Amino acid sequence: xxxxxIIKSTVTPDPRIEWKKIRNGDTSYVFFENKMQGDFATRxxxxxxxxxxxxxxxxxxxxxYRCEVAAPSDTKTIDEINIQLTVQ
Length: 88
Fold this sequence. Notes:
The protein has 88 residues and is mostly beta strands. It has strands at residues 2-3, 16-23, 26-32, 35-36, 44-47, 51-54, 63-70, 78-85.
């Protein structure tokens, strides 16, 4: 599955991007400090700097995924988007 976090424009040369997984009230890192975390390290990757691709998804991957972008040089320095993923 591919989850996309589109950045339309930014003046910050290298905005910081983080992905988090929120499930049953618990938040965990998926992509943090430019690397995959936990079990995502062996089955997920970042495409085009902003899209999260999760391979071999299972029902345990059902959650809300939050993409957070920090762009300190921009007028809006931080933004986020939540994507609900349901694996049947």
